[in-house]
Amino acid sequence: MKIAVLKEVAGAEARVAATPDTVKAYVAAGHDVVVVKGAGDKATFADALYKEAGATTATTNATAVKTADIVLSVTGGDTKLLTAMKKGAAITGLLNPTDNPKYVAAAAKAGVTAFALEYIPRISRAQSMDVLSSQSNLSGYRAVVEGAGIYGRALPMMMTAAGTIAPAKIFIMGVGVAGLQAIATARRLGAVTTATDVRPATKEQVASLGAKFIAVENEEFKAAETAGGYAKQMSAEYQALQAELTASHIAKQDIVVTTALIPGRDAPILVTKKMIDTMRPGSVLVDLAVERGGNVEGAKPGEIVTTKNGVQIVGHLNWPSRMASDASNMFARNLKAFLPLVTAEDGSFAPDWVDEVIQGAALTRDGAIVNARLKG
Ligand code: NAD
Asked: Which parts of the sequence belong to the Alanine dehydrogenase/pyridine nucleotide transhydrogenase N-terminal domain (predicted)?
C-alpha cells in the first residue's frame, strides 16, 4: 500500500508520525512511502534520512496524500487536506474527536476513514499501539525536569564542606502514566517524593517507586476506579476532605506536578489560590492538565504565571512536542504496531473491520460516522 507521512500543520507541533527507522521497516515490508519535505526537521530527522530509508519526498501535504491509501500524522492535518485524499483512504493521528466534531464531519463527507489513536482501547494487546501512554510517559518526565529547571535550588541532599543542602520536596498529584513517570524522575533526581490519587490501585504503585502515598482513604476512595481503570468524578464531600489534606501538605512542597484527569470532563481543581498563598517563594507548580481546564487555580495555557508570593505556575502545552525526537520515535513505533491491523496479507490496505482495536479507533467509514463513542 501507499503510505504518506505528513508535515504537521498544527501550531508549534514538532513531532512527526514516522521516523527513518519505521519508514525503513515499511519499505522492507513492500510498502511505498512518501514523506513531505521537512516533516521531520523539528524532530531531528532530516529529509536525507528518510530518503536513505527508502522513502520518496513530496513538496506539500496535498500532493503527498493524493494517491495514499493511508496517511500518517500526529494531529490529523487540516480539514481541507481530507478533500485531497482518495475516497476510502485513511488518516491516523490524535484527532481529538470529542473537541473537534468538525474534523470528524469533514472526514465523513470526504469519504475518508479517520482513525483516532487516542480511541484505541487500552487493552493488553494494544499496549504497543498506545500513543496516550507513550506520550504521557515523556510528559511526566519532562514536567519534573522543567519544574526542577525553573525551581532555583538543588533537588538532592548535598553534604559538603560548606554545609548541607536539604533535599527538595516534590508532590505528584494524579498517578496515571504521566504521574508514575514523574514520581520515578523526582526520585532519580533525589527529591523527597510524595504522591496522591483517588484510585486505590495507585497506592501500591507509588510505594513500589519509593515514594510516600497521601490520600483520603475512605469508602468512596475504595470505589473510585471505573471498570476501564480510570478515575470517577469524586463527590463534593470527598473533594473537601481531599482539599483539607492537600492544603497542609502543599504548604511544605517545593515542586508540585499535577496530572489529574477524568475522562470526558474538565480536570478537577486540586490546588486552590488559597493553597498557593501558603507556599514558599520560589516554589513551582507544573500543571499538566492545563489543556483540560487545569488542576491548579490560576494556571494559564501556554504561560508561566508568577503569583504575588513568588510561586511560579507552569502551564506549558503539548509537553511531548518539547521532546520531539523521543516523542516521535515512540509515536512512530506505536503506529508501526497499529499498521498490521489495516494491512492484508498481500500488503494491500484492508482494515480488519471486526477487530475491536479498529472498531475503537475508526471514527468514520464510507461517508458515515461509525464510532460508538461519538454516536453514544
Ligand atoms: P488519566 O490521564 O486519565 O488521569 C491521570 C490520573 O489522575 C489518574 O491516575 C486518575 O486516577 C487521577 N485523578 C483523577 N481525578 C483525581 C483527583 N481528584 N485527585 C487525584 N488524582 C486524580 O490517567 P492515565 O494516565 O490515562 O491512566 C489511567 C488508567 O489507565 C491507569 O489505571 C493506567 O494504569 C491505565 N492504563 C492501562 C493501559 C493498558 O492496559 N493498556 C495503558 C495505559 C494506562
From this structure: 4-139
Model ipTM value: 0.95
2-119+323-366 and 139-317, same CATH topology: yes
Q: How far does the centroid of ligand 1 lie from the alpha carbon of residue 177, in Å?
A: 7
| 2-119+323-366 topology per CATH | Rossmann fold (3.40.50)
For residue 131, the CA-to-ligand 1 centroid distance in Å is 14
DSSP structure class, residue 215: -
Give the residue extent of every domain in the chain: 2-119+323-366, 139-317
d(CA 376, CA 373): 5
Mutation to probe ligand 1, out of 230, 238, 242 (largest number of atoms < 8 A from CB): 230
Decide if 133 is catalytic.
yes
CATH topology assigned to domain 139-317:
Rossmann fold (3.40.50)
Q: What is the pTM of this model?
A: 0.95
Phi then psi for residue 134, to 5 deg, are -65, -35
Q: How far apart are CA 159 and CA 161, in angstroms?
A: 7
Q: Please write the tens of the pLDDT for every residue from 179-214.
A: 999 999 999 999 999 999 999 999 999 999 999 999
- Say if ligand 1 is within 6 A of residue 215 CB: no
- Could you tell me which residues come within 8 angstroms of residue 1 by beta carbon, excluding any fewer than 6 positions away? 31, 32, 69, 70, 343, 347, 348, 349
Find out whether 234 and 198 touch, Cβ atoms under 8 Å. yes
pLDDT tens digits along 11-28:
789 999 999 999 999 999
Q: Given 78, 125, 127, 348, which residue is catalytic? A: 127
